[in-house]
């Protein structure tokens, strides 16, 4: 079984609740440290984003024994990359080149409700406070439900052909 399959098995299958929680907690801790390292070294972080998978795993603090968790990290960051990347085929010797869209990464962290990531102090090295507020506003706008009010004399949305007031809007007396 490959690293990606191992990651999927451990992160999506709950056979033992305590073991699952410990695994996910370990993932979150390693993920946070990896992002902090990448953001802290920005813009001179290419040594953390390019190279052999096993080397990057070590440099980002996962350790060789946690290669499957590193692949899980790669899966998570893949939606914030400007280049195509297939984490399903990663082996120790895979060449990895991560080109991160940092604004998209910040947005995706908000979308994942990963407060422990988007509140990292090291974001100050990458984005201005104004830019983070702008992205946060966009995230909130994108996730706000807008409902149009149906007027009494508008056609009923159920498709009956009647006016709303004579159909679904009719009050029960």
Describe this structure as you would to a colleague.
There is one protein chain. It contains eight helices and two strands. The chain has helices at residues 3-12, 17-41, 46-49, 53-59, 67-77, 102-111, 115-118, 129-142, and strands spanning 50-52, 95-97. It is elongated and about 70 Å long. With 173 residues, it is mostly helical. It starts with a helix and ends in a 31-residue tail after the last helix. The model has no long low-confidence stretch (mean pLDDT 94). A two-stranded antiparallel sheet has the order 1-2.
Index terms:
173 residues, mainly alpha, two-stranded antiparallel sheet, 8 helices, 2 strands, 3% strand
What does the average pLDDT come to? 94
Counting DSSP E segments of at least 2 residues, the number of strands comes to 2
Beta strand % = under 5%
Can you count the helices?
8
Task: Report the sheet with the most strands, covering strand number, pairing sense and barrel closure.
Answer: 2 strands, antiparallel
Principal-axes shape call: elongated
User: What's the end-to-end separation, in Å?
Assistant: 66 Å
Low-confidence stretches: none
Report the radius of gyration as a whole number of Å. Answer: 23 Å
Structural class: mainly alpha
Helix content: 40-55%
Which series of helices and strands comes N to C?
A: HHHEHHEHHH
Strand order of the largest sheet: 1-2
Give a brief outline of the structure.
With 173 residues, this protein is mainly alpha-helical.
Secondary structure elements and their pairing?
Elements (H helix, E strand, L loop, with lengths): L2 H10 L4 H25 L4 H4 E3 H7 L7 H11 L17 E3 L4 H10 L3 H4 L10 H14 L31
Antiparallel strand pairs: 1-2
Helix pairs in contact: 1-5, 6-8
């Amino acid at each position: 079984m490959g690293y990606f399959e191992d990651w999927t098995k451990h992160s999506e299958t709950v056979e033992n609740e305590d073991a699952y929680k410990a695994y996910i907690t370990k993932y979150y801790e390693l993920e946070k440290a990896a992002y902090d390292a990448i953001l802290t070294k920005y813009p001179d972080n290419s040594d953390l984003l390019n190279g052999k998978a096993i080397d990057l795993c070590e440099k980002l603090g996962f350790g060789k024994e946690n290669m499957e968790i590193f692949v899980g990290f790669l899966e998570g960051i893949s939606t914030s990359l400007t280049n195509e990347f297939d984490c399903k085929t990663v082996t120790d010797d895979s060449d990895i080149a991560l080109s991160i869209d940092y604004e998209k990464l910040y947005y995706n962290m908000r979308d994942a409700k990963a407060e422990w990531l988007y509140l990292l102090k090291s974001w100050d090295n990458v984005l201005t406070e104004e830019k983070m507020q702008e992205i946060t506003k966009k995230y909130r706008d994108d996730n706000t439900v807008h409902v149009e009010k149906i007027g009494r004399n508008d056609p009923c949305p159920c498709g009956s052909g009647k006016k709303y007031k004579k159909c679904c809007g009719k009050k029960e007396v």
